[in-house]
Amino acid sequence: MTNRPGTSAGEAEAPAFTPQWLSLREGADAAARSAELIAPLLDRLTAVPPPDGTLVVRDLGCGTGSLGRWLSDRLPGPQHWILHDRDPGLLALARASLDGRITPGGAVTAAIHEGDLTRLRAADLAGTSLVTASALLDLLTADEVDALAAACADAGCPALLTLSVVGRVALDPADPLDHEIAAAFDEHQRRESDGRALLGPDAVAAATEAFERRGATVLSRPSSWRLGPDESALTAEWLRGWVGAAVEQRPALTARADGYLRRRLDTCAAGGLRAEIGHIDLLVLPAAPGGDVR
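The structure corresponding to this sequence follows.
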């Protein structure tokens, strides 16, 4: 997955969300996120200001806080970020990077919430100005996405959901095995994990439908990674994870995938590989009880 590092074609995926991987991808994430969605988000936040003047942002699956570092400078006024993740180590890093941060709008404070973010309901979002997430939707099930949509809609809380994969990968130069690796990877994203059927590249469509069914306006913009010679370290690590997941899903690919990965890594190291990995950003603006977007 684009939000996981990998090992090699014949090995299982490495643990997700290591600080090293999240640090490696942060620059590409920042370059990819859609700046076009900021203006309508600010319009909404200005129209419905927080009662005490402090914007409360809940960042779901916050990792090391990269979305907070990117977004906090673009939001108005003082901010309080509530960081949700299951990993206490990542939470500590995220809080340290955001708490006390000074933005053009004012100071930032941060608190942490360790646990299962899929259990959030509307009552948990009371007083929240904005829900955010990065590279999260494709890791959820249809029921979990529906529950998130219900929570935001019932709480009247907007959401900025960035960098969801959509199953589009383009490599230059092309290789005859590209399509088969990509198809196996997409199957892996849709796998059943611990009894949960993950949405993978179907997540954007599922989330859009779930929010719109509840009267929200959903704006979408592309946020693809575009990786060239300057991002060769990231491209190489992404390749290992991409091919590794494909082989995990289709073990019969192993022999061919090993050679494929070696070729791709050699080209990458020589500065000759470019990659575009498709993502979509969503801005969700819930409707008021009367049907108007608030």
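Confidence is low (pLDDT under 50) at residues 1-15.
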